[in-house]
Structure prediction request, 423 residues.
Amino acid sequence: MQYKNRIADKLLQESLEASGAVLIQGPKWCGKTTTAEQIASSRIYMNDPEDMEENIILASTAARRLLAGSTPRLIDEWQLAPQLWDAIRFEVDHREQHTGQFILTGSAVPPGREKIRHSGTGRFSWLTMRTMSLWESGDSTGEVSLQSIFAGEEPVGGEKKMDIEHLAYLICRGGWPEALEMTEKAALRQSYNYVDAVAQSDMSRVDGVARDANSVMRLLRSYARHQGGQATARMLQTDMMANDGGMSEGTILAYLKALNMIFVTEDMPAWNPNLRSKTAIRTSDTRYFTDPSIATAALGLGPDDLLSDLKTMGLLFETMAVRDLRVYADALDGHVYHYRDKNGLECDAVIHLRNGKYGLVEIKLGGEKLIDEGAYNLCKLEKKIDTERMKAPAFKMVLVGVGKYAYRRDDGVLVVPIGCLKD
Prediction:
């Protein structure tokens, strides 16, 4: 199954041109193997039931047999044999061609990292693949380019009339590639299947620690209720005790680590700009699932439920918007952060590129009142930034779910419908 707009395809090609081996990591079902297969000249599937046991033995006794083949060679689910890492590093060093040799894919950080003796610096590059953005899934027109906005161009021509009912569906469907080929009912079921797999097996298989499926589900529900917030493990514990039953704080921290290892969650770090004042900046990470449908499935919500609770829909739309911004930032060699200070001033997303340029983004479901609120916050934050010590923001944007046109307000703030945006 191929999708012409997958940003990871281009990033993989660029990484292979610069590195001996590329590790593609990300959540299960996001399309890592398919992306790798499209460029690989040979492949081995470490989790093939017929060969898995033998493959794992060979990784320890005769790793070169697994690495032999036309390049680039795909090694799928490599984390089943972490010792392959050092074998690949050695092989890259001793081949005449040092770049474009191997592609590794995996849906979990390997628990056996102690078996890895070398960091891979200079031989490996890392590519985090995410579920599909709206541009990649064909649900955005792509008329407004984030790259062009960073270059100072006007977001002209952006038009997307996305009604709130369809937006609710997209939040619940998520960015799972296989869901695009399904009926709406079946597509919505995909996220439930994903959450069930996480609770029933993935959380225990990631590091060999048995975890209770019901406890995993309780934590997922609590985490979903805190999307876009800075909930601590103790806050999650309190929430779980009030709603579903309790877990110890230490157990919650261990479960959160496992969720991160299998790319179910990806919390957003804080942005620390140079400010004119000595305002203290909150440095806690913001909680996000890697895809909004994980939250809706954990809470047992469908599109109609979101339409009946617009506050919750707004929070989960933020999760979807953050996913898209992360995908687009990856394409531009950037990262996404959040800002919050002790006075309560927030910025939902700061897209910071490697060249020092950055943009400020507020995420709103839609409506004039919310857009005005977001624009006010962005202008207030801009005034606090010390532009003698760092660049001024390249743009200020309110990213909306429901809105027809992209335009620039009189205060300089861009208003862009998410259904118009691309990298």
The chain has a mean pLDDT of 92.
